[in-house]
Amino acid sequence: MKTKQFWYPLPERLIAQHPAEQRGTEKMMVLHRDTGMLEHRHIADIVEYITSNDLLVVNDTKVFPARLLGEWPDTHGAVEVLMVNAAPMDADDERPSMTAAKDSLRWNVIIGSGRKCREGQEASFGPNGELRVRLLKPLQGIGMWQVEFLCERPLMDLLDEFGHTPVPPYVKREGTAEEEREDRARYQTIYAREVGSVAAPTAGLHFTPEIFAALEAKGVQRVAVTLHVGPGTFRPVKADNIEDHQMDYEAFTVPPETAEAINACKARGGRVFCVGSTTVRTLETVAAAVESSNQTVEPSKNSPVVAGSGASNIFIYPPYRFKVCDCMLTNFHLPQSTLLMMISALAGRERVLCAYAMAVRANYMFFSYGDCMLIV
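Now predict its structure.
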């Protein structure tokens, strides 16, 4: 398929620059896959669409202040570092690992600087240069380097003090303390637990304790996977043919209790509701691994999900056949993005683009801090 088939016009005024004043009040468009019918609801209404026979799966990754602003000590020139993922133990392995991301001092990063970077250079960060970064080796990709952090105190403590929340580039920030406080609080799900993401699983930003309490009272079970989201989630598809696009690897874990709950849900004929594209990618990755093994499985409803950790670069686009995900809560995505291609595989490209056109006319807010869509 051609990348241009996933273009749609979007007025800049509909790109949300800040979260809703109160979490859990965002609008939710409901798209029915079987009929194409659209409903205009709010996120709290999701309780009406999920039954006790279904299962809700979320991504419990936690965003950390992964953006650093500092200087080169020798020239005092400005330098910016965006941490991407903890570097794997094997120097020849480009895939990220879930192992001790929050404890690692060796990271793959993107460096922004006006000077040419060289191995062995060091940059300093923080009011007193308490944190230093030494460049180890260049990696594939513009500005990509593997670096080592040099510090006497725990790295994550220092990032909490003077790092910046890595909001996506379409969210414009002036660098004020008030903006940072807002992003620290709201660019994070209420159930975030596992440190490692430089981008939030944004479909989960809408949930509140009250919504979860209503689902629990209805008998809806909730389980979690972990996928550490990298900046590649915002990387545009530049290839003319979408099949030529390569996804970045992202580390994931599927706990045993999550695999068991999904398999039980499938066995009883329930639906798996995935919160966000990261949850979908994780579950479809492990299901695909099972399907490609020697096991005999039915790919539509009874494909088993296995527990484990790994790194996924799965790219889901039409006419992909989903093995785990039945329903999906998702935000409104960028034109020609891999995320838009994923939901087009689930709901149909023409229906999705029609829904997006309706969302523009109805003044839904788009992207990370925007409104959401439930696909059932």
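The first strand starts at residue 27 and ends at 31.
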